[in-house]
Amino acid sequence: MKTIWLTSVIPSEERVKNLIAQLKPYGLDVKGHFWEDEISKMTWAKPREELIKPDVLLWLILASGEQLKSPSVRYGLSLLALTLQAKRGISFPMLILQTDGETPPAETLPTPLRGSNFLSLTDPAMAAKLVVKVNTPVKEILSEYRLDTYGNPHIGQWIEVGPCKGPWPGAMFGVSGAEITFHAVGPKGSLPTLSSLRYPLKGMKLNLGGKEYTAWAAQNELNSDTSYFVKIEGFPESILFGPYSTEEEAEAFVVQLK
Question: Residue 44 and which of 23, 152, 235, 249 are 20 to 30 A apart at CA?
Fold first, then answer.
């Protein structure tokens, strides 16, 4: 049996049971959970530890066309996708199983979900296509940056960024439609307990693509083992980040979250 993780945005036990029964004869063991659309409580992070386990070979999202338009659903799925991609690679297979409605164009999806494949729940060959997806070797895609997320009601909502290869002379991070309330630098992979920032900056205003971002920065040099962490209040529509620079035209990465 090969394990896939099911996130059911559809709150129907009957549909989920039927789907599991459909997939079992094909050698697919379905584990999963029902989606809780409460981003203020950071419920998106609940399945994180199960989803990133090495035996999980595919993330399957069961949702309606209307649910995929919801900003809060898109935001929560995006943050969960980011932490999955941070741990399992940005080419980790994700598939959205749509119960109805038109398939949204890839460019209209949040950045972390744009690599997802789509299938219709009513497709007679749905189960067979899932088997093919699970058994297709994944091509590793190298990224220029590291990006991970953390969240629970006790620690709040954090995002971690850093370089994959060459060093950064510091880091800058901006949000559109939210606020940064704290920043730190430390070893990658977990929130730092102590941090000393070099020349920290707060409240910089940046405009890109018609959106205004409020950015913070620090000039601590980062390498592949160190990261810049920011704590965020609210639910940004998009984030902007990259190596610190004093140049007017600086390298920056933009990730849409809704």
Answer: 23
Task: Quote the pLDDT of residue 234.
Answer: 97
Q: Are 8 and 30 in contact (CB under 8 A)?
A: no
d(CA 164, CA 111) in angstroms, rounded, equals 19
Could you read off the pLDDT of 193-231 as tens digits, one per residue?
989 999 999 999 999 888 999 999 999 999 999 999 999
Q: Hey, how many other C-beta atoms are within 10 angstroms of the C-beta on 100?
A: 12
Distance in angstroms (rounded) separating the CA atoms of residues 69 and 51: 23
What are the extents of the domains in the chain? 2-135, 145-256
Q: Is 59 helix (H, G, I), strand (E, B) or coil?
A: strand
Q: Is the CB of residue 238 less than 8 Å from the CB of residue 173?
A: no
| CATH architecture for segment(s) 2-135 | 3-Layer(aba) Sandwich (3.40)
Whether 2-135 and 145-256 share one fold: the answer is: no
The domain made up of 145-256 has a fold known as Immunoglobulin-like (2.60.40)
Q: How many CB atoms lie within 10 A of CB 253?
A: 15
The pTM is what? 0.95
Cα separation, 253 vs 241, whole angstroms: 5
**pLDDT over 70 percentage in the chain:** 100
